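Working notes for the structural subgroup meeting. M.R. asked for a predicted model of this chain before we commit to crystallization trials. I am recording the input and output together here so anyone reviewing the notebook later can reproduce the run.

Input as submitted:
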Amino acid sequence: MALIKQQPFNLDGRKELGKLEMTKEVVVTLMGMGTLALFAFGFFFAALYTLFTGEVGFNFDFTSGSTILISVALIIGTFVLHELIHGLFMSIYGGKPRYGAGIAHYILPYLYTTTKTRFLRNQFIAIAIAPLVVISLVGIGLMAALPSIAHLIFIPLVLNASGAVGDLWVTRNVLRYPKHVLLEDRKTGLIIYGKETDKTMNITTAGFGTRFSKVFILCFFAVGILMCIAPIALDILGVASFTIGPANSIYTIFEFHSSEAGFGISLFPLSMLAISVIAGLIYAIIMTGKPGVSARENHKKSDGKNHKNDFVGLSMGIGLALGAGIGVAMDNIGAGMGVGIVLGVAIMEAKAKKVR
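Returned structure, recorded in token form:
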């Protein structure tokens, strides 16, 4: 692969358009994104595992010392490979990568790859998403070609993809800037330079929780309501049986069976939760951090409203999460969701009284 020889970009006639700093708020938000992504990508790669191997569950035999060593080596090797791929693409675009490790705000341990070279927007995006794309494609290919070792590849793939969710979020925000901007990657953040005529915009993690909660709740209830209405239509149409997702597996979402005595349905809350988490995560990554002109003025005007919306979304999210657990324990997801709504409202009311 040929290296692209380019002259270093200078900042003559350019100004700082925005920056992303690894503040404590950003670190905590990225940890939240990564945790949700762990669940979402776990569901995705587990589905591929089932497709390639025909097995629904996993058989991890950790009684063998060699198996444990291989698993640990694969995980550590994947993390290192992730950074090396960042560095490779930096080199392709003329940079000299430097590697290191750290702990952000004593909360989040991380490996990093950085360089003093500034890159154009599209070059930076290629550098950012390359490890996710390369490792995922190679891993999926290995799972398909060698099903016998798919269980060993599964965990590194999930950890790599969930760890790259921050790269995806930064990429989404960088795409909002013109393609002529220059990006300077630093150990503790990112600085974006543009033309004097470009508008100044900042990247922020504000609103991630609210946006995720809104779509998560909407998707969960929409799927639930649809699954409750669908049996009536299926029965009227004379359908004997209908299943969404692989039958009799952890990926089954909905089952319908009809007989002379009537019809019955089965809902699978974990699959519904997985779909809702994936939808909420995608929406939140796409929408969170959308830069705005005069953001400081707009923030002052909407600060109170945003805090209220954040708390409403958080309260309902906590209530529904607890309700889902209760529903699974009771084997009655409807009752569980009802309890979840009540808990969410109770949390909001308790907070409101405390504020007053």
